[in-house]
Amino acid sequence: MNAQVTEVADPYASRVASQWEAAQRQDPVIWGDHPGPLADDQLQRHKRDGYLSLPQLLSSAEAAALLAEANRLAAAIDPAEDDCIIEPNGNAVRSIFRVHRTNDTFRAICRDPRVAGIARQILGGEVYLHQSRVNFKPPVNGKEFFWHSDFETWHVEDGMPRMRAVSISINLTENHEFNGPLMLVQGSHRTYIRCAGETPDDHFKDSLRKQEYGVPTAEAMQLLVEQGEGIVAPKGSPGSAVVFDCNTMHGSTGNLSPYARTNLFLVFNSVENRLEAPFGGKRPRPEFLGERDIVPVDKL
């Protein structure tokens, strides 16, 4: 089961070989000592575990207002025109993207010091939105998101140079064990999994519905789980949130419950870590997946 490690010019090269490999992270988790809303013990937990669960980032009333706006957008969506993804086996909306650019309600939350301040504190300075989206998991047949490290995709397909990005997933509905909650491999952010295979052209057209490239093998997952502290699935009421490192291995199961699961998913990147040409050699994904026009969050 042990993977070999190969020295390469790009420390985060992936999808360049027929076998997966494990590599040590080359970047900090906490960049400096920038002030922010998190207490020192919270920062240390994030550094150690690769994620931080926040029981009440927003109020329940704020979460309800965001949920109403998310449902309004989903009801009015035109899949042929809008930046959205549909469920793989149906017509239900799976994700609506770039809400920080297109919607005043979500733009305001992105700029909120309670949210953006966390990103600045972890990443050590000014940040921008690399990506934003509302994720929907409809009742009974909402499909899974397979295990993946976001950074692996952002590096290979978008051209993000270093691990200096952080995600904040804000629960707009109750997240519990029955409706396909976010799952994370604790401590997995310390190890980078180089995935096997070669990225197809326009991979995003399929990967956002069902990802098959840039995903870990069963052996890689076993390695991460055994060298870490297992798999966690933080529960939370509307307004709670999970902050997690860009290299934390995560995914979620399908929703077989009669209760929808809706989350606002925000990816903050340091303005000093702006995108380059994709390291996988393909053309960049569309900007609704990886912003190339850098606008600091306060200037949205």
Number of helices: 8
Tell me which oligomeric state these chains represent.
single chain
Query: What is the radius of gyration?
Result: 18 Å
The number of distinct β-strands equals 13
Order of helices and strands: EHEHEEHHHEEHEEEHHEEEE
Instruction: Kindly report the spatial arrangement of strands forming the biggest sheet.
Output: 2-11-7-13-5-4-3
Uncertain segments of ≥5 residues (pLDDT<50)? 1-7
Mean pLDDT: 91
Beta strand %: 15-25%
Described by strand count, sense and barrel closure, the largest sheet is: 7 strands, antiparallel
Structural class: alpha+beta
Question: Termini, distance in Å?
Answer: 47 Å
Percent helix, as a range, is: 10-25%
Describe this structure in words.
This protein has 300 residues and is α+β, with helices and mostly antiparallel strands. It contains eight helices and 13 strands. 24% of the residues lie in helices and 22% in strands. The strands form three sheets. A seven-stranded antiparallel sheet has the order 2-11-7-13-5-4-3. A hairpin with a 6-residue loop joins β3 (84-86) and β4. The longest helix has 17 residues, at 60-76.
